[in-house]
Design goal:
By secondary structure, this protein is an alpha+beta fold. It is built from seven helices and eleven strands. Strand 2 and strand 3 (69-72) form a beta hairpin. The chain starts with a helix and ends in a 7-residue tail after the last strand.
């Protein structure tokens, strides 16, 4: 097979697969045909197919898994750094079905670490909620939230089984200020289990504290697998 034809086929394979992904014909999670099948379909060498799939993987369109094959990747969500973003809206923007499930809800006295995170007085009570947000039936984000009962006493009776805690809080109490902290971590054992990812997978963590005119409202920690989320900020020149 001459080299020129091989290069032409390489780009044709890339264009064909990319077109099927972008058009939605092959949705996120769809298995790409195996290399051997593509070799037969395009009447080319396996090296040509491998180069095409490697290019698509580098572009973030497919994910190659050892012994499993290649799959269309989940599109990456974006949120603004300084906004109180809604996870359901993020997932919907990806044209994926949204759902969530509460894995833990407890009412307890605030410990030392809780008081530091939520800016509480000793002896304060809080509600802790841990839930998983899903996109297309797969874990998308881990939410770990503390809610001050001194500021939001209604949280004592809320079970959050039908409305995510973030949406519930926005409807319940207006916030007057917020603070964001963004950093990267390797997934610990609990996060890895809940997000269905290998332990120590690189994750993006967004921590937020909000206050109302009455006092501290909530501290929340969102953990996203690193390849599933991006943060966007827009700036204007300083005067």
């Amino acid at each position: 097979m001459d080299q020129g034809r091989d290069l032409t086929l390489h780009q044709r394979i890339v264009n064909d697969i990319e077109g099927r992904i972008v058009s939605g014909e092959w949705p996120p999670g769809h298995r790409i045909p195996f290399e051997l099948d593509l070799t037969k379909e395009y009447d080319c060498s396996r090296m040509t197919v491998n180069k095409a799939l490697t290019q698509l993987a580098k572009a973030g369109l497919i994910e190659r898994r050892k012994k499993s094959g290649s799959f269309v990747t989940q599109p990456q969500a974006q949120s603004a750094v300084l906004e109180i973003h809604d996870i359901a809206a993020e997932v919907t923007s990806l044209n994926l079905a949204y759902s969530f499930s509460v894995t833990r809800r407890t009412r307890r006295k605030a410990g030392v670490d809780d008081r530091l995170r939520l800016d509480l007085e000793p002896g304060s009570s809080l509600v802790e909620v841990v839930c998983i947000h899903h996109a297309g039936g797969r874990p998308f984000c881990l939410e770990e939230r503390l809610i001050s009962l001194a500021t939001v006493p209604e949280a004592n009776d809320a079970d959050f089984s039908t409305v995510p805690p973030g949406s519930w809080l926005i409807n319940q109490v207006p916030w007057s200020s917020a603070e964001h902290r963004i950093h990267a971590v390797g997934a610990g054992s609990e996060a890895a289990t809940l997000l269905d990812i290998p332990r120590n997978t690189a994750c993006l963590v967004v921590e937020r504290r909000t206050w109302s005119n009455i006092g501290p409202v909530t501290h929340v920690r969102f953990t996203y697998p690193g390849d599933k989320h991006a943060l966007v900020a827009r700036f204007t020149p300083a005067s």
